[in-house]
């Protein structure tokens, strides 16, 4: 994908500005306000001082939305980015869009909800020609897990080990309760609805791809270790192990696994990110990608999960990437002369602080830095 970079040096002084010996009174030609709505424990998604500072240098003011108040009573905003779920919040966004149809909402709630459910999350991958998904079955019946121990028809041609996943993928504690099932006995005690996904050995390496609009960054991460065939036959070992405990086990490696650490070509990553982003209709996602080898020895890539608005603070160089993305979304917005009042869109503590401070986070005389094509 085409990349752009943000200038690291300030633009030339505007005509009529103050001299070098004093501060200028020239205001930025455009100041945008982004309202972000997230749970407090999700603020580290990207609301970091380093991002806030860079965004401010380019004329972007980030304001926390108070989710306890109607969104239509807050602002004014030039863009709203959110990571809140549920019908009440969705209704607030819809009401806000009716009043402010020209203000971008990142991202559409209906599209987000599709990937919050593992029953539908990976449906879009079937339409892509460059990646696939592991074989899996969906267990709807609450009594089915116990039956699976003796029912070959339910498992079909799935082979152990299997990954048991809750259907929820909303970032809650319950959504992370995954386990690796080595043999049938490990299915006992699991509760439906759930997804049983075939585990594929992939050298203990996972590629986490962060997508921001048209930009994609691939980060190599440690993953579930190689599972030898002997482990599946070991009746003295646990039949199922929670993911939280697997990280405590001694890693098991297979011959040739060093090659698994080599990331896929950037051109391939860009292609998959572009196709997947369009398929789900979302600007801010990441997805987990693994690589295995087929019978002919050719690389095969599988998508395991798709997440909305992930922790971008874990992505190298996330600040300029997000700033550039928001600027692109905001450029079509008209320049406003009105300024948010003290405390607009803030919680109680922030509002009190704002009443005693200037509303602008842009230093006096500063201008949004210019963009340069890489």
Q: State the CATH architecture of the largest domain.
A: 2-Layer Sandwich
Number of strands: 15
Poorly predicted runs? 7-27, 248-256, 339-374
CATH superfamily membership of the largest domain, which one?
A: ATP-grasp fold, B domain
Kindly report the spatial arrangement of strands forming the biggest sheet: 6-9-7-8-12
Assembly classification? single chain
Alpha-carbon Rg, integer: 24 Å
CATH class of the largest domain: Alpha Beta
Mean pLDDT level: 79
Order of helices and strands: EEHEEHEHEHHEEEEEHEHHEEHHE
Subunit structure: Monomer.
Binding site for 1D-myo-inositol 1,3,4-trisphosphate: 42, 83, 176, 208, 307, 311
Binding site for Mg(2+) 2: 305, 307
EC number: 2.7.1.134
Features:
single chain; alpha+beta; Rossmann fold; five-stranded antiparallel β-sheet; four-stranded parallel β-sheet; globular; disordered C terminus
């Amino acid at each position: 994908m085409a990349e752009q970079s943000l200038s690291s040096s300030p633009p030339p002084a505007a005509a009529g500005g103050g001299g070098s010996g004093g501060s200028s009174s020239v205001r930025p030609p455009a100041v945008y306000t982004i309202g972000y709505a997230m749970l407090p424990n999700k603020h580290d998604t990207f609301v970091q001082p380093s991002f806030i500072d860079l965004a401010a240098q380019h004329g972007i003011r980030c304001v926390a939305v108070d989710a306890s108040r109607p969104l239509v009573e807050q602002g004014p905003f030039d863009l709203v980015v959110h990571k809140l779920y549920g019908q009440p919040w969705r209704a607030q966004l819809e009401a806000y869009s009716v009043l402010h149809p020209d203000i971008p909402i990142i991202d559409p709630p209906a599209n987000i909800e599709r990937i919050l459910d593992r029953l539908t999350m990976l449906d879009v991958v079937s339409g892509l020609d460059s990646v696939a998904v592991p074989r899996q079955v969906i267990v709807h019946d609450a009594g089915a897990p116990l039956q699976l121990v003796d029912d070959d028809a339910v498992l079909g041609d799935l082979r152990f080990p299997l990954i048991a996943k809750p259907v929820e993928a909303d970032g809650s504690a319950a959504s992370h309760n995954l386990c690796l099932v080595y043999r049938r006995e490990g299915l006992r005690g699991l509760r439906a609805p759930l997804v049983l996904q075939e585990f594929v050995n992939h050298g203990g390496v996972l590629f986490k791809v962060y997508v921001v609009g048209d930009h994609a960054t691939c980060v190599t991460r440690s993953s579930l270790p190689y599972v030898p065939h002997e482990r599946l036959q070991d009746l003295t070992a646990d039949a199922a192990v929670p993911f939280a405990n697997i990280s405590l086990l001694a890693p098991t490696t297979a011959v040739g696994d060093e090659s698994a650490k080599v990331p896929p070509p950037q051109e391939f990553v860009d292609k998959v990110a572009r196709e997947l982003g369009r398929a789900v209709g979302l600007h801010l996602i990441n997805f987990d990608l693994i690589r295995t080898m087929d019978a002919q020895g050719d690389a095969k890539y599988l998508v395991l999960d798709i997440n909305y608005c992930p922790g971008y603070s874990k992505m190298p160089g996330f600040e300029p990437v997000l700033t550039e993305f928001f600027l692109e979304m905001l450029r079509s917005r008209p320049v406003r002369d009105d300024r948010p009042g003290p405390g607009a869109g803030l919680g109680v503590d922030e509002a009190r602080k704002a009443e005693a401070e200037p509303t602008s986070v842009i230093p006096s005389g500063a201008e949004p830095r210019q963009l340069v094509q890489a």
